[in-house]
Amino acid sequence: MWNESDYDDDDTHAVVVVYDEIISLNVKFWVYLFVLIPSIICSLISLGHVIFNRVLRTALHNHVIVVVLFIGLFNTVTIYPWMLFFFRHQGVWYRSAIFCTIWAFIDWGLYFTQTMLFAWATIERHILIFHSNWLATKRKRFLLHYLPLILLLIYCLTFYIIVSFFPSCENYFNDTYMICAAFCFTNTYGLYMWDAVVHQVLPNVIIVVCSTGLLIRVVCRKYPMRRLFYSRKYRKMTIQLLSFSLLYLLFDFPLSLMNLMYLCGLSPDVCTTFYEYLLFFNYLMIPMLPFACIISTPGLKLKVKTFIS
């Protein structure tokens, strides 16, 4: 998610944050590199653990998580190495407009796509644990499980492909910044407000509310259902969801709120130092997701220990 200041003009309503470089490029390079390499390894192990195990592959609660991990892996093998190259060369890297557009699409579009998908996962987890009878038939599974996932993917990818590659206005390009392209739809206040609220803030609110609600329901559920919720299967499903949700709460939610505050009129000069730190930690979220998957899945822990040893 870009935060550079030279993408604005007199009419733009985009989030504009002006600051000196507080966290050095060298620090960013080594921190992200330290996390990135084991993250890619853990992603491959996590995805292989599910994909090559028929029972896990057909389990409904794994489907959204697998898609989120796939998107995260795609990010970590594309824009994160590009970021490291940019940091290593101290920001000197001349790139084409199409390359900048692809980078912005992955950084912005795919990031919010996986956020919205996980927000749906937090809603669906309530159905899987507390109302599994809603998914008893193939028709119900299609309507309540597969269809929402398909529609969310189609909607998000269509929206961001259009604003990235087929905009009705001219996107901005500035080769001196890491994210060297910015979407011109941010000039349209209503459209950018829709993006900020629906694609950024709302999914995070859903994640926080539904994850907290799931924890409360599992802990406070009375007998005779207690044995169901403390069974190994549902305990795993709950721990996995809460592990992922914690990362969104810590690394994504604060930045989304700050972006909304800037959009609603907060001066770009306010909290710029805090904003850069939020952005720095926000880029750690996707590489951290595979670790959350490993930690919350006992079988995966053993595989990782075996791989390391």
Automatic annotation (TrEMBL):
InterPro entries: GPCR_Rhodpsn_7TM. It comes from the Eukaryota. PROSITE patterns: G_PROTEIN_RECEP_F1_2. Keywords: Membrane, Transmembrane, Transmembrane helix. Signal peptide: none annotated. The keyword Protease does not apply. Residues 42-290 form the G-protein coupled receptors family 1 profile domain. GO terms for cellular component: membrane. The chain crosses the membrane at residues 29-52, 64-87, 93-121, 142-166, 201-220, 241-262, 274-295. It is found in: Membrane. The keyword Thylakoid does not apply. This is G-protein coupled receptors family 1 profile domain-containing protein.
